[in-house]
Design brief:
- By secondary structure, this protein is α+β, with helices and mostly antiparallel strands.
- The protein has 2 domains: 93 residues, 2-Layer Sandwich (Translation Initiation Factor IF3), CATH 3.30.110.170; 108 residues, Alpha-Beta Plaits, CATH 3.30.70.2970.
- Strand 4 and strand 5 form a beta hairpin.
- Strands 2, 3, 4, 5, 6 and 7 form a 6-stranded antiparallel β-sheet that branches. Strands 1-10-8-9 form a 4-stranded mixed β-sheet.
Length: 236
Amino acid sequence: MLLGICLAVGMIVSSIIASRALERIKAAGQTIRVKGTAQMDIVSDFATWRASYSVQAPQLAAAYEKLKLDTEAVKKFLNGQGVPEGAANFEPVLNTTQYGRNEDGYPTNEIEGYLLTQPLEVQSENLDLVTRLSKESASLIEQDIGFSSNPPSYLYTKIEDLKVDLLGAATKDALRRAGALAENSGSRVGRLRSASQGVFQITPRFSTEIEDYGMSDTTTVDKTAKAVVTMEFSIK
């Protein structure tokens, strides 16, 4: 009987010990996963404007002659708008040979003319200048110049420094969220198990646009940058 009582007590004690050990093992495996975010309003500090103008003529020499005259007019326009000498980059001329078509609409070997296109680009920290160029360049069309202007691209050049600051702030936000969730469940946040960076977004100010792979707005001067991190903590 005594042996039976001892065995029974031993089994009960062993069960309690095993149960508590199992609880500790389970608790050690419990984690909490949270997302942290941070955002900051920024203002573009650099702008790029791309444009081009074209001439068309039956003879190549005539096309080049007209292109030279148009280039002088474009340079005069840029100078009048305050573009510093040498700030405009005139890229190599694109030469397209134009062929005639037969009755069925298929191209033939007969050359009908030449199309010359002169691309140009202006880059500047003066955003007002670039914006004005894109708007006022329409006046070149009045001079019989086949001018085409693209919208300016507005950029922020300190992106890498901004990312570091926002990721740090997003990490603190994730820890704060994890602490609030753990506290509400009667637990405490333990050590960090894993962390990953989410998408980095630069959107127009007040925009709600989101892309799965991130986005970088270049259409507006005023923007908002947002960083997201996902972090997993053990809980005690």
